[in-house]
Amino acid sequence: MKHPRRNRESGVAIYITTVMLTMIVPTIGLTIDGSMLYAVKCGMQGAADGAALAALRGLARGASGQQTVNAQNDAATWVKLNYPTSYFFSSDITVNPSTDVVVDLSVAQRRTVTVNAHVTAPTLFMRWLGFSSTIVNASATATRRDVNIALVVDRSGSLAASGSCEAVKAAASNFVNKFADGRDYISLVTFASSTHADFPIAQNFKTAATPVSTMLGNITCAGSTSSAMALWTGYDQLVGLGQAGALNIMLFFTDGKPTGVNMNMAVKNSPASPCTNAHPATALVPYRTINGLYNTYTNQSTFFGILNPTNSGTVTNGDFNPTPDASTGANCNYMAGGWSTSVQDTSDFLGLPQTDIYGDSLNNGYQSVTTTGTCPGVQCFIDLSNQNNAAAMAMNAADSAGTSIRHGAAEATVLPHGGSSLGGVIIYSLGLGNAPYPLSPDQLKRISNDPSSPIYDTAYPAGLFVSAPTTADIDAAFTKIASEIFRLAK
């Protein structure tokens, strides 16, 4: 016979099991539904995050009045394209461009996009409680600072020699088109033997009567490589704008080592010197001077000159004009306006000064030079008779310019905004590696304060050197720098 107590215990077990099932089954159901909703939320959040970034890119398209609409439409499209169809049985993805995508332009030099996305997700077990579906929401916000860019582009003859001139112009134009007309500021500085600001820094770089893309298309590649002068001209554009709180960028493109330096050449005071139009000596500079561009060849270190550091303001004219000191250059025994080594005669000159007109040191220790005269002192000159000094002085000038600009130095008075300065400028350098006489990646890393540079200084903003080994790599290199700028602008 079964014991009565055991019978009673069997009945209790049934009751307990029934009660537990009524609690466990809904709990398991809620867990499953919650997991599904969480997965839907994650998918929707990823799509919203991407949409916010896409909207920021949309702000770079079209005129300023159309940019907000472009951003809103891009965000809505991005969500729908990047959220998987019927993901965990969800449906009815909703992003209203006009109400769910909000573009805030109220803060100076900053744009913020907020994207709100919605999707209907079904339930499985919660239907027992009367909830057949629920709305899952996701919100994402992305911010981009407006940027000020001095685009400094090499147009020297080596680009034509390597067949890269047209590719550079197209890639630079694509780079410019990634930024927002009416919000960002861009200037175009081009350089070879001469240097000038083709497009002074402005916000209408796409819609001006002659936009930057057109100016780039008109470039003729010829001449040498006056890197130091180009760097200072680009810096002057940012200094003149004077927005210290903005993201100030210089993009410096070149395909070769520096070859040109703008300086006041030291002319002998002897009455026998035929340099009749030289500037007179002063108390501070006790010798006569001729301003001009002094170069070295790209394939060998050999002095030549005297060229005009600037030209008439068009990038298509010749880059081998004599110095503006007029017949000064022609009357002096010094390779006036030509490439030929047969006219080298430095008998009218004392030597090269140790600084260019921007204050860059031509004897800063980066590249070794030899000197003549009384050193140190105003009569200490870089020796013109040592042709190896030609390449060294050009390299040193560019290196010194990069350091001064990164440190926010005051400009020399010869520049339009002389005496003014701007801290925090970030320099990106882009080097094309297929020129007949190649560039120096080491120097471009130094100029940019690239973290891999031997003189990298954590006290100042880090830039980046990007290499384009061949012509086919130029556009990708420009795009990489644009991506880095957008990363910083967030």
Global morphology: elongated
Q: In DSSP terms, counting alpha (H) and pi (I) runs of 4 or more, how many helices? A: 10
Strand content: 15-25%
In angstroms, what is the radius of gyration?
33 Å
CATH topology of the largest domain: Rossmann fold
Structural class of the helix and strand makeup? alpha/beta
Q: In the CATH hierarchy, what is the class of the largest domain?
A: Alpha Beta
Order of helices and strands: HHEEEEEHHEEHHEEEEHEEEHEHEH
Write a structural description.
By secondary structure, this protein is an alpha/beta fold. The protein has 2 domains: 4-145, no CATH class; 146-490, 3-Layer(aba) Sandwich (Rossmann fold), CATH 3.40.50.410. The chain contains 10 helices and 16 strands. It has helices at residues 4-58, 64-82, 157-161, 165-176, 212-217, 227-241, 327-331, 388-406, 441-448, 474-489; strands at 91-94, 101-104, 110-122, 133-145, 147-154, 185-191, 195-202, 247-254, 260-267, 288-296, 303-307, 349-351, 371-373, 380-382, 426-432, 464-468. The strands form 4 sheets. The chain has a 6-stranded mixed beta sheet, with helices on both faces. Strands 1, 2, 3 and 4 form a 4-stranded antiparallel beta sheet that branches. A 4-stranded antiparallel beta sheet has the order 11-10-9-12. Strand 15 (426-432), helix 9 and strand 16 form a beta-alpha-beta unit. Helix 1 packs antiparallel against helix 2 (64-82), helix 6 runs parallel beside helix 8 and helix 8 (388-406) packs parallel to helix 9 (441-448). The protein is elongated, with a radius of gyration of 33 Å. Residues 336-343 have low confidence and may be disordered.
